[in-house]
Amino acid sequence: MNKNNLKIALAWLTGLGIAGILILFINNSAPSVAEPAAANDSPSLLQMLKTGSTSGRNDTFCALTTGPDNSCLGSPQALCSKDLEMAKIAWKYFENNYNPTTGLYNAADKYQSTTMWDTGSALAATITAHDLGLIDEKTFDERIQAMFKILTTMELFNKEAPNKVYHTGTGAMVDYRNQPAPDGIGVSILDLARIVSWLNTLSCMHPKYAYPSKKVLERWDMTRLIKDGQMFGLYRDPASKEKAIVVAQEGRLGYEQYAGKIFRELGYDQQISATYNNKFRAVTNIYDVPIAYDSRDPRDLGAYNYVVTESYAMDVVENGLDAENQPLLANIYEVQKRRWQDTGIVTAVSEDNLDQKPYFLYNTIFTAGLPWNATTDKGVRYDNLRTVSVKAALSLAILFPEDPYSKELAYTVGTAYDPERGWYSGIYENGGGYNKAITANTNGIIMSLLLYKKYGEFYPVCKRCERGIKSQVIAAKTCDACATE
């Protein structure tokens, strides 16, 4: 190697050495790019994407899209495999009878008609189906949103409140024959109470629906429907050429208190309707068991008092057990048990659809002065068509699980279903086989019983959670205030 090449090599080495020293100096004196420039700075989105890290952040969709904290509902009771099997059978009815165009369910199998009562039963079933995992969150929300769409846009009777009947395919007002009724046929305040009860439970278990529920109620004009501590329905006078609207007191002992308590929770004065100890209560003895009934004369008001299982059972399941309804429900259970002990006939009576004429019957403990009277709403007796009501039998069984008669009830109706259609309404007492009428009400009540078994009484639980419909329909007026006026 000559001297010139040696000098060039030494120069390159010297330059590289100086460059290395400069790079080392710069790295030691500049802030590290791996650390935030200031202690309060968060990592940039770009940095998190590069590293795959979200350290220090909790706003991922895994956390954000979970449902509400329902721990306030208490410790749920586990359901057994038989419970879930029963729920699946009941839910089959609602899968078969859903109308996606309107969001409404048929009140009877494959018959496109419904009431607000049956819509309440369908809502109960939908809430339960989601809670038990029979439908996922998306299906649940799609059905609830569709229901709210119809409830907030449906035509109201006389622009006051929902009509008694709607076509589930079109959402239009119809009569009880499911024929178009552009002017509507009237309003049932008891039916409204049923859907209010389940809108409240929906708002409790899924608080995002509390405001839509409130808006549904605010559409209704309750001026003529609740007054003087009682509830009133509307109907058109068939004898009037002008089809004049008649305002008539609605509700008799049993259903009246079930509904009255629900409206009392909204702040309405229900000093008569919400208590069983009102001036219309009377008592009769059947099998030495005191049975309360309504003393109002059907000839004056055009409505009978049907003493049945359903109203008392629903009052406890939804409104809660209290000092008034506890002995009444116990007597409803006991008198039916004693009839079974005396006659050998398994007894659990309620009103139900029938699979034959007259297609709807009130199977009662007491009506129109007669025990065990099976009658139409016109007072025509059909004692040969008495049935063991599936919804009544299962309601009593779940409310009195320790009594041996409950096992007899549940066992008797345990096979009264079609696995592809849902639970039947009942079994004929006289050996006539199953009453194969299948309805939203029977299957909805069965679903709600399972939700009750899991969580307990709905209104008390939701009040403990401080959840439900926050209604501002009218100012609250308590019965204490009413009494001092």
Automatic annotation (TrEMBL):
It comes from the Bacteria. This is DUF3131 domain-containing protein. InterPro entries: DUF3131. Residues 85-455 form the DUF3131 domain. It comes from Thiothrix winogradskyi.
